[in-house]
Design goal:
Elements lengths: L1 E6 L3 E8 L2 E8 L5 H16 L8 E5 L2 H8 L5 E6 L5 H4 L24 E4 L2 E3 L2 E4 L3 H13 L4 E5 L8 H13 L4 E4 H4 L5 H32 L5 E3 L5 E2 L1 H6 L7 H16 L4 E7 L4 E7 L2 E2 L1 E2 L2 E3 L2 E3 L3 E2 L2 E3 L5 E5 L5 E7 L18 H7 L17 H15 L3 H23 L11 E5 L3 H12 L3 E4 L6 H8 L2 E12 L5 H19 L8 E10 L6 E5 L5 H16 L8 E12 L19 E3 L2 E4 L4 E4 L3 E5 L5 E5 L6
Parallel strand pairs: 1-4, 4-11, 5-6, 5-9, 9-10, 13-23, 23-24
Antiparallel strand pairs: 1-2, 2-3, 7-8, 11-12, 13-14, 14-15, 14-20, 16-19, 17-18, 21-22, 24-33, 25-28, 26-27, 26-28, 29-32, 30-31, 32-33
Helix pairs in contact: 1-7, 2-7, 4-5, 9-14, 10-11, 10-12, 11-12, 12-13
Amino acid sequence: MLLGVDVGGTFTDAVLLGDGVLVTAKAPSTPEDQSLGVMAAVEIALGRAGCDAGDVTAFAHGTTVATNALLEGSAARTALVATEGFTDVVELGRQARADLYRLCAAHPAPLVPPQLRFPAPERMTPEGPLRALDADSARDLARDVAGAAPEAVAVVLLHAYRHPRHEQAVRDALREALPDAHVSLSHEVVGTFREYERAATTEVDAALSPLLGRYLRRLAERARRAGLPEPAIMQSNGGLADVASAAGHAAWTVLSGPAGGAAGAAFAARAADAERALCLDMGGTSCDVCVVEDGAVAEASASEIAGRPIALPTLDVHTVGAGGGSIAWRDAGGALRVGPRSAGAVPGPACYSRGGTEPTVTDANLLLGHLPGDAPLAGGVALDRTAAERAVGALARELGLDPRVCAEGIVRVANTEMARALRVVTVERGIDPRGHALVAFGGAGPLHAVAIAEELGLDRVIAPRTSGVLAALGLVVAPQRRDAQRSVLRSGRTLTAEGVARDVAELTADARAALGAPRDAAVEIAVTYELRYRGQAYELAVALAPDATPQRLRAAFESAHEERYGYRDPEQEVELVTVRVSATTPAPPLPQTAPAGDGPAPGDVIAGPAVVPLPESTLLIPAGWHGTVLADGAIDVRRIGAAEA
């Protein structure tokens, strides 16, 4: 039996897969301690499957602990050790404004205040030490840091990505002076150049790791007492890591939750033979979107969370504050707005009858008949239409609208926000969304999917039978994965086949060792090369074989450059900036699953308009569209006329 549990802002989802059965469950999320909601969802799933915790052979978990802590600024007391003269690198940042046209907008404050920044008396160059760090200086520095009593320390020294020995000396001294403190070293966390991004990422890693570590140890202990295996944790790159690795590097998990959904969406797209797909994960609090090409989610070499750069490979997921619990409101200009503020799990939408009084997208859908008012939602949540009418009616009076028109406006505004998010990951990056299928999931995704598809000019929507818990299913199908990356800065005479092969071999050994797979285990190796024309500020990533030659690197880079920017320059020198190696072990083979719960049977055809209840979500098929139920229970919705064409 394979178990996956994903924590969302409103619900915690569980999927139990094995013995030819797929069992799903939902429980309310418990923000005060996410592990309580996790164990509650697991208990429900085990009960429905009629099996014991001892039957579970693998347990994968997606968490938002690191994400929430970063968004809320609730970090551990953290110190920063940087090369003398560079202790303010995170605060200085780059010259770009937080908002081009709002001069008063500011970047988020560093997680480490000035009084907790300590200079290291050393200086490293790309060629080696200019000013060596001796043992006495390292001990004195560690003693000064210990005097500030930090819970965590981020160590970011110049050019440590190439020469890490000074960072290692500081770590050894800190372990003697602060044996209980967490220490993050920039060459271990990031391993690439650009001082600001490397420092900011290491600062995030140090500040969040104690919080995430406490949560994961608590969850692992509860799982052990319940008889479950130790959980594997979803990373931002879409692969799983063991508890110790995730707890030691919280920066690896800041997109843990959305990554599970993206992995599940890619799985659903492959199952429906959709090579190109757009993924829409609409939950109770937010909406995550991404692109699937050739059955895999696009990756980015870096991301930004809450205005802070994370210089680590992540699945390329874009998030907006539009969910079923997003609150509708009137702005100062009299316009109807939706989100980003959410009613969350507590008190939730007004129709949940848990104390919420403000109108939400879920309340609007209930008034419009898009949700069946006579049946509870997943998780046993009964819907109160009267409470929804009261909440939406109050906003309608403010806007001078009929309540039904107001409800229609709430849904339309939410759809527009999600369509805009999908344009960010497609049109704004040179991708034509037409010709893609829209994979809709999350508790609210299938309700809005067809309307969003119409706005983007799409003709196909896929609603998996497990839409409401697809992120948890994505955890089950995710592989174990570890990445190793390094800035190599090779060009001219140093860009040789032998040099590139040596870089790839060293990083492959590091990634395999970090993965901890047995020597005879099947491990897939993928290599990404980041290149640029010499003198450019940023790189383009190309995926090629481990034995790629400089000629093949140049050809692949120039092809990508022409596609992105419209030209290539055969006379310009090409520079290989960074090499990244990913080592993965395949996920366990999935057993043959049978559709779970009530719902339409494979082969059924559903003509719109129709409201189709799914086990943990609801699909809305408007007029002009019809759906066909596939063998695995997913509903393939097509625009009438387009399907035949």
